[in-house]
Amino acid sequence: MLIVADENIPLLESFFTDIGEIRRVAGRHMTADDVRDADVLLVRSVTPVGPELLEGSRVRFVGTATIGTDHVDVGWLKEQGIGFSAAPGCNANSVVEYVLSVLSLHAERCGLADGNELSVGIVGVGNVGGCLAGRLQRLGFKVRLCDPPRAEAEGPEGPEFTSLEEALKCDVISLHTPLTREGSHPTYHMLDESRLSLLGSNQLLINSGRGEVIDNQALKARLSQANAPSVALDVWENEPGIDPELVGSVWLATPHIAGYSLEGKVRGTEMIYQALSHYLGLPVRKKAGQYLPEPPLSKLTFTATADEQKALRTALRVCYDPRTDDVKLRLAMRGSADERAEAFDALRRDYPVRRECSSLKVQLKGAGRSMQDSFKAVGFKLKI
Ligand SMILES: NC(=O)C1=CN([C@@H]2O[C@H](COP(=O)(O)OP(=O)(O)OC[C@H]3O[C@@H](n4cnc5c(N)ncnc54)[C@H](O)[C@@H]3O)[C@@H](O)[C@H]2O)C=CC1
Ligand SMILES: O=C(O)C(=O)[C@H](O)COP(=O)(O)O
C-alpha cells in the first residue's frame, strides 16, 4: 500500500510504517502526478483536495491532520466513495492557549491588573470556541457566545447565544468559525467593511479561525482610520502570499501557528492514524503520548510572595509568548512577493517545539484557593 503524505505531518514513520510505504511530498506543491499511484493520501491544510488532484488516482482514503476542512471537497470525496477523516479538536487546546496569551498581553498593555475585567465575545462556539469559553468563565471573564448554527439547532435548551452585532460590542472579539461560503450562515468576509466600522479603539479583534472570515482589504482600510481597534491576526487571506501592509498595521501578527503546539500536531497525526486503521480494519496500536518527549522545562515554582496575575502571565508566557512569532513574521515581510510567501511557509515548516501548559508542573507555595483555581483553569498541572 502506498501512502502519499505531506512532509510536514510529524511522526509519519512512527505511526504509518506498519501500514504501508510512505512517500513524502511538499503539501503546498502536491500534484496529481504525486498521488496517481497512491492508495492513501494524508494532508495538512495547505493542499486543496478534490477532483483536480485525485481524478484518475487509486486513492481510496484521505486524512487531514487538521481541524479545518475548507481545503477538502468533502462532497466530491463522498460521491466517489473515497473515505475521509479530519482531526476535529486535535489542536483546539493549542489555539486556546494562543488566545489566553494574547489576552494576557493585551490586558497588560491596557494597564489592567486583572485581565478578567474584560468582556470577550466568542464567535463560533465549537471545539475551540467552547473550550475557550469554559476557560475564560473559570477565570472570571464576562463571556458572550455567538453561534447562529448552534443557536438554531439547540434552541432554548442550549446556552444563551447572542447576535454577531452584540458580540462585536465586547472589549475583545475572538473568531473561531470555520470558513464557509454557502449555507444559512456563511463566514466568508463575515467581518466586512460595515461590521468592521462598528469596532473602536478600546476593542481588540483576534482571528485564529480562517483568514477569509475577515475582508482583509477592508480591515487594512479600517486600521488606517481614526479610532481603529487593536487586531491580532494568526490567519490571513491568500496564505502564504499575505499582505505585508496588513502585517504592518496589526498589533500582533503570527503565521498561522495558533494550533502548532507539539501536543496538537501529534494528536492530529494520531487521529488520522486511528481513522485509517479503522477504515482498513487494522488494530490501533499506537498512541500520541508515547511519542511526546520530556519538555525542556518541566517545573516552575512561585513563592508565597508571588502576585496571582503576574505569576499567571509569567507561566503562560513561559509556555507560549506570541511576540516571538510576531517579530519573526514582521522580519519575513521584507523582500519580493515570492520571497515573502516562501518565508511565511518556512516559519511554519521550521516551527520550534512548543509545549502546552499541561506539560509544566507548577508549584504555588502558600497560594490560596483562588490562585490555584486560576492556574488549573488555564491548564497547568499543580505540584502539591
Ligand atoms: N489558527 C490555527 O492554527 C487553527 C485554526 N483553526 C480554525 O478554527 C476553526 C474552528 O475550529 P473548531 O472550533 O474545532 O471547529 P468546530 O467545527 O468545532 O466549531 C466551529 C463552530 O463555528 C460555528 N459557526 C459556523 N458558522 C458560524 C457563523 N456564521 N457564525 C458563528 N458561528 C458559526 C459552528 O456552528 C461551530 O459551532 C476551524 O474550522 C479552523 O478553520 C483550527 C485549528 C487551528
Ligand atoms: O487544524 C487546523 O485547522 C489548522 O489551521 C492547522 O493548525 C493548520 O496547520 P497546517 O495544516 O497548515 O500545518
UniProtKB/TrEMBL annotation:
EC code(s) of this entry: 1.1.1.290
InterPro entries (alphabetical): D-isomer_2_OHA_DH_cat_dom, D-isomer_DH_CS1, D-isomer_DH_NAD-bd, Erythronate-4-P_DHase, Erythronate-4-P_DHase_dimer, NAD(P)-bd_dom_sf, PdxB_dimer_sf
GO BP terms, alphabetized: 'de novo' pyridoxal 5'-phosphate biosynthetic process; pyridoxine biosynthetic process
Any one GO molecular function term: NAD binding
Span of domain D-isomer specific 2-hydroxyacid dehydrogenase NAD-binding: 117-258
Catalysed reactions, semicolon-separated: 4-phospho-D-erythronate + NAD(+) = (R)-3-hydroxy-2-oxo-4-phosphooxybutanoate + NADH + H(+)
Domain D-isomer specific 2-hydroxyacid dehydrogenase catalytic: 21-280
Pfam families (alphabetical): 2-Hacid_dh, 2-Hacid_dh_C, DUF3410
Keyword Ribonucleoprotein part of the UniProt annotation: no
Superkingdom of origin: Bacteria
Keyword Coiled coil belongs to the record: no
Localization terms from the record: Cytoplasm
Principal cellular location given in the protein's record: cytoplasm
Binding site for substrate: 45, 66, 260
SUPFAM superfamilies: Formate/glycerate dehydrogenase catalytic domain-like (SSF52283), NAD(P)-binding Rossmann-fold domains (SSF51735)
Family: Belongs to the D-isomer specific 2-hydroxyacid dehydrogenase family. PdxB subfamily.
Complexes and interactors: Homodimer.
The protein, known as: Erythronate-4-phosphate dehydrogenase
Origin organism lineage: Bacteria, Pseudomonadati, Pseudomonadota, Gammaproteobacteria, Pseudomonadales
Gene: pdxB
